[in-house]
What we know:
With 469 residues, chain A is an alpha/beta fold. Chain A has three domains: 4-119 and 269-364, FAD/NAD(P)-binding domain (3-Layer(bba) Sandwich); 122-266, FAD/NAD(P)-binding domain; 371-469, Orthogonal Bundle (Arc Repressor Mutant, subunit A). Chain A has helices at 15-24, 62-75, 136-146, 162-172, 192-197, 200-215, 273-277, 318-335, 341-367, 372-376, 392-401, 406-413, 425-437, 455-468, and strands at residues 4-11, 31-34, 52-54, 80-82, 85-91, 95-100, 103-114, 118-120, 133-135, 153-158, 176-182, 220-222, 224-230, 237-242, 255-258, 261-265, 268-270, 282-285, 290-293, 306-308, 383-385, 390-391. The longest helix of chain A has 27 residues, at 341-367. The radius of gyration of chain A is 22 Å and the shape is globular. Chain B is built from two helices and six strands. In chain B, strand 2 and strand 3 form a beta hairpin. Chain B is globular. The relative contact order of chain B is 0.26. The interface between A and B is large, with 53 and 46 residues. Strand 3 (52-54) of chain A pairs antiparallel with strand 1 (7-9) of chain B.
Amino acid sequence: MMSKQYDVVIVGAGVAGLKAASVLAKYDLKIAIIDENPSLGGQYLRTLPENFKDRLLKFKTAVKKEGLKLIEGLKNSNVEIIKNSTVIGVYEGDKILFDKEGRSDLIYYKKLIISTGVREKYFPFLGWDLPGVFSLGAVQVFLKSNGVLPAEEIVLAGTGPFLYAVAYEILKAGGKVKGIYELKKFKDQIVFSKGLLNFPAKLVEAFVYLEEILSNNVPIKYGWGVLKAEGDDSVERVFVGKMGQDGRVIEKSVKSIETELLAIGFGFVPNLEIARSAGINIVYNEALGGWVVETDDKLITSNENIYASGEITGVGGAEKSQIEGELSALVLLDSLNLLDNSGKSKIQKLVKKRKKAIKYSKYFNTVFSVPLEFYKNIEDNTVICRCENISMKKIKEAIEVGPSDMNFIKTFTRAGMGNCQGRTCGPIIENIIKSLEGKTPKPATMRKPIKPTLIGNLKKFYEERIKSS
Amino acid sequence: MKRIKGIERKEQVEIIVNGKKISAYRGETLAAALWAAGYKRFGGKALKGRYNSPFCGMGVCFECLVTVNGVPNIRSCMTLVEEGMEVEFDDE
């Protein structure tokens, strides 16, 4: 494959990216959408493989229904779909280096839309690094993309509405949910209902999940967390209990549950690596979920040729992503003088709709965040960096002796130097520093390759390029 | 069995895991196929004192790395199974 030039490249084929692609596909432009996964849809629009016949009845939100239609539509459009492709970096303002099935390649863009979505966030405990502890998302991936129930009986812990969505899916797949342990107290969640009022569709979704959960008599505890997960080589039991004010589990409340699988999730954090590799600005905004891409009302980033859409501008769910996918595409078209008056007025409408979505986003990110003071009391021998096996004790030592700087902690302890490049431990360490020192550190310096790649893949690519030039 | 009942799966494939043949279905990721076959230990014990295993399920954590057809460090959660695929990892 020779390197190709596109008018527009979209990175990330989730709700936002797909919507943007479908808007742009109606125009005479050369467009590519690139995604790391074997199939389109990102995390929200996961479906079983095409050759599987699904007889399970599944509830689908309006955004999901539309998204699945968009995937079908794109397959018959002029948009080039580059799947299975991991972006290694955005270079010199016009090219994207990526790895696809064991080889490297480059594509060139004039305009770029980044819609790389979110990953999960964690509040660590003893044994969270044992086999048999899954993220909530992993359970969903196994269920929805593979038709595999990772265990007959599953315990769920963490915070936020995603717990209920995953519980619902486990039950529908014929599994048993042995308990849902929500870290936040019920009274602290009531304010979330105000956020839901901005999105009646979300309220419907909540009732669908709760009906299934309640009718299956799943135990739900609020203000409860995990003390530890335990077992020889993999999880056999978990200890849960009531959370104290300091973030430690209250000893006399602890009970043990036999389980092979514990699924955890503590909210979401934007995937900013590709955006940062393109050199665009990020800002810290707690109500939007922490570090997010800096954009104006119209999703233009600090680089006028790069647009950000979806969760990376603020964690707010699929509805917000859908709005932003459309908005970013229209604003891009406007910059090329391709929009008529109705298109221009659509931009104004979407800017307003987006404001409403951000209101929900603010409730979501503040109600379901782990209280900051919890982080400084994480048990000393809890693993923080899973790749390099770095404990809380080591992280605290580093914070004590040096500057409260992510780069220093990385150099001093090796936390964040492993294969995941700090994607898992970075947001945790950021919160530990905030909890101990009261200030938000800047993320560690972004270096390419932004995901591990094989040198052999790059070598092959450059040798071929030299030969053909 | 871990595969959900009520789903009709076509195209069974055979993969070779540490020298042993196991069956999977086209469309499944390697991580899900290995997990469904009962594999939980994906190496790493000698280095960290505990085994690696699928965690994030979506290509972020790099804890489900295996060797596929001789190429090391492949994320099994981002790789679809293929007939005859040779998979290796240290589960001892």
